[in-house]
Specification:
Belongs to the aldehyde dehydrogenase family. It is an enzyme of class 1 (oxidoreductase). The chain is built from 15 helices and 20 strands. By secondary structure, it is α/β, with parallel strands linked by helices. Strand 10, helix 8 and strand 11 form a beta-alpha-beta unit.
């Protein structure tokens, strides 16, 4: 059991003002693995006050001191590798291989990459007759989802600490224990008290409290668009800055000279990885009409290489959905696809055979999907792929861009001119050509309804800074 019924405020674990608890469930077993306190507005007030008190001194530390701190955090994070993997597997139901190869290092990489960039980051700049100084924004409220329990928090925390901001973090109630482990990391790394505060509790109390708190200067949120809207509405009341990392419906554009097996495996890996619960997942495969039949055959040939099953089993590629609610949402979308004119290629509703316990879905692929169909427009956040065909590349790009989102885009193929044309024409914050690995120094964020602002690297640090122009400074 991972019981953790206290909040971390001003460098100490403290009791909540109320005695109400929230159960945390392992979605692979449907069993309770622990509980957390359901924090109150009074708990939040204390945390915000601690962050406010710590701000004057932390914001005046040097960038070298803060870069060293980030490296010490990364060192302490690495020492707890096995613990992070265990916790993320238990609370998210994330398979052991995916947790080890993706979930664990993503959290770590942000601290390392930010430390490196910070050493070369200019907090001052001279222009014609002005001196520009970038000041830490103040107290930041961080609200994170459950799908990458350390990554989503770490990118925000690395940027905040680099800038000299102090924070209050509210992680998802579904996956709160990775944040408890991060707290242990910060203590061991010698983070000054009050710089980092952790308050557990619901979105409707603590999340809402953060976005409407008069002593919070900036809210950095990752999650759904609906909650993003509420946060903006609250933040609008006192002109609080917001950064929103929201959903997506990202395209995979397959060029006509692509290797069809490579293209099909790329598409399957997008819906299978993290059970499709990835904001950047490529969930619309846009393939040439002439390649369609071969592409569908390749999907059928390769889908069994991505087995759904027990997260503890090393051969498992795909685990369960995070919760019963999320499972039902995914099932409803699969039914919507079946009820449409699209053709079901593989998968469908219900649980995979032998996986009656746990919130497991079948890897599901539809073809003959029209660009405007519900399953091609709405974010499902589950293992469901829509295959759409195109006649020429301009049409493919139009279909790819025909969405309210713009978080990511993928291109698979060989011709350098067509790869370049497509990559540069997609209207999204991140384009990946032929499965190139991520660059943790480059910006991450969305166009349109995928969000506002950028995370990762120096762009992430900028979000936690306010530029100040001084003219007439004595030289
Ligand atoms: P969510 O329901 O929006 O929740 C995200 C966080 O917001 C949770 O901590 C949640 O608290 C909290 N919250 C809920 N209501 C709130 C309110 N009224 N005010 C403030 N905070 C509130 O999203 P989710 O289901 O956890 O995550 C899935 C969504 O996140 C998907 O749409 C996905 O695309 C998006 N996402 C985006 C990115 C990105 O980087 N762009 C990354 C990952 C996920 P509770 O603990 O009470 O739920
Ligand atoms: Mg859970």
């Amino acid at each position: 059991m991972y019981n953790h019924i206290q909040h971390y405020i001003n460098g100490q674990w403290v009791d909540s003002t109320e005695n109400e608890m929230i159960d945390v469930i392992n979605p692979a077993t449907e069993e309770k693995i622990g509980e957390i306190s359901s924090g109150t507005k009074e708990d939040l007030d204390k945390a915000v006050q601690a962050a406010r008190d710590a701000f004057p001194s932390f914001s005046q530390t040097t960038k070298e001191e803060r870069a060293d701190l980030l490296d010490r955090i990364a060192d302490e994070y690495e020492k707890r590798k096995d613990k992070f993997i265990e916790v993320i597997m238990e609370e998210l139901g994330s398979p052991v291989n995916f947790t080890t190869e993706v979930q664990y290092p993503m959290g770590l990489n942000h601290f390392r990459a930010t430390a490196k960039l910070l050493r070369d980051f200019d907090f001052t700049e001279e222009r014609e007759n002005s001196f520009i100084q970038k000041d830490a924004i103040g107290v930041a409220g961080l609200i994170t989802p459950w799908n990458f329990p350390t990554n989503q928090a770490s990118t925000k925390l690395a940027s905040a600490f680099a800038a000299g901001s102090t924070v209050v973090l509210k992680p998802s109630t579904e996956t709160p224990f990775a944040a408890v482990l991060l707290t242990e990391v910060f203590e061991a790394a010698g983070l000054p008290k009050g710089v980092f505060n952790l308050v557990n509790g619901t979105g409707s109390t603590i999340g809402d409290g953060i976005s409407s708190h008069p002593d919070i200067d900036f809210v950095s949120f990752t999650g759904s668009g609906g909650v993003g809207t509420k946060i903006m509405e609250n933040a609008a009341q006192d002109i609080k800055k917001v950064s929103l990392e929201l959903g997506g419906k990202s395209p995979i554009v397959v060029l006509d000279d692509a290797d069809v097996d490579y293209a099909a495996k790329t598409a399957i890996s997008h819906i299978a990885g993290n059970t499709g619960q990835v904001c950047t997942a490529g969930t619309r495969a846009i393939v040439p009409e002439s390649m369609h039949d071969d592409f569908i055959q390749a999907i059928k040939n390769h889908i069994s290489e991505y087995p759904v099953g027990d997260p503890k089993d090393k051969s498992t590629f795909t685990g369960p959905q995070i919760s019963e609610d999320q499972w039902k949402t995914v099932q409803d979308y699969i039914q919507t696809g079946i009820d449409s004119e699209a053709t079901l290629v593989t998968g469908g509703t219900g649980k995979p055979e032998g996986l009656e316990t746990g919130y497991y879905s079948k890897l599901t692929v539809f073809t003959n999907v029209k660009p405007d169909d519900t399953i091609a427009q709405e974010e499902i956040f589950g293992p469901v792929l829509s295959v759409i065909t195109y006649k020429d590349l301009d049409e493919a790009i139009d279909v790819a861009n025909g969405t309210i989102y713009g978080l990511a885009g993928y291109v698979v193929g060989n011709d350098p001119d067509n790869l370049t044309k497509t990559a540069r024409s997609l209207r999204s914050g991140r384009i990946v050509v032929n499965n190139e690995p991520a660059d943790f120094t480059a910006p991450f964020g969305g166009f349109q309804q995928s969000g506002i602002g950028r995370e990762w690297g120096d762009y992430g640090i900028e979000e936690f800074l306010e530029p100040k122009t001084i003219v007439g400074l004595p030289s």
